[in-house]
Amino acid sequence: MSFFNKVLASVGIGSAKVDTKLERDTVSPGEALRGVVEITGGNTEQKIDDIYLSLNTTYIKESDDKKYTVSGLIDRFRLAETFTLAANERKEIPFTFNLPSDTPLSFGKTKIWVATGLDIKNAVDPTDQDFIRVIPNPLMDSVLNAVSSMGFRLREAECEQAPHRLRRRLPFIQEFEFVPVSGPFRGRLDELEVVFFPQSSGETEILIQVDRRARGLGGFLAEALEMDESYVRFTVTNGDIPYMQQKLQSVIAKYA
Question: What tens digit of pLDDT does each residue of 28-75 get?
């Protein structure tokens, strides 16, 4: 490679391009995501130090009483060792990885995407982004359908910075905020918040915040002191799916 071409490559002129093609863009937590990374060489030979895929989302972070949106890394996967890409060479690298069980779902404002990057020393690193749709697995779907069947409407779903006591592997949690519009809890609850803490594809821990409606002066004071809120933790498995609504209704009724 001529000195002139080396200079051009180092500043990203005539450098490699990357394009990731997914087999499908809809997947559930725990399922496999497959695809191929297509790399096309530029006008000059380049050494590729690393190829990686990262799974990302955004979440709300609070600092100094201000809220702002930041990117959050869910997981990162390395695809290839160092290799040299010739000028105009085309290379395909197939991949398969399982979505982590704690990947957020594509509800509300929550977006999830796969970012592909080539690590090229002393150069502008080529990148590519592909958004995916993450849908509930059967167990999560059963819980969300049960809440809906009890007369709750999903008002908001958002990833937020996790308080220290709720922090697990990731620095954020996804909250599903429901309001009762019909059914047994209309008029008894202000809202219901649900958070999933998946243990496996067939088992998940659930945290529910039950926010009771204030009634009279005592209720007003309780609400002002946040004594009208109860936090409930319990675990559900695939074996609970046929009876999910009865199980959730029984749990919520104890605190309504």
Answer: 999 999 999 888 887 878 788 888 889 999 999 887 778 889 999 999
Question: How would you classify the pairing of strands 127-134 and 26-27?
Answer: parallel
Residue that is written with structure tokens 């008894």 in the block: 188
What is the number of domains present in the chain?
A: 2
CA distance 190 to 200: 31
Specify whether the CB–CB gap between 40 and 16 falls below 8 A: yes
The CA distances from residue 247 to 146, 240, 244, in Å, are 9, 8, 5
CB 237 within 8 A of CB 202: yes
What's the predicted TM-score (pTM) here?
A: 0.83
- First-last CA distance in the chain: 73
pLDDT single digits (tens) 124-171 = 455 778 999 999 999 999 999 999 999 999 999 999 998 888 888 999
Identify the CATH number of the domain in which residue 96 sits: 2.60.40.640
**Amino acid letter, residue 44:** T
Last residue of a domain, one of 92, 116, 134: 134
Asked if 122 contacts 13 with a C-beta cutoff of 8 angstroms, the reply is no
The CA–CA distances, whole Å, from 223 to 75, 215, 226, 230, 232 equal 39, 9, 5, 11, 18
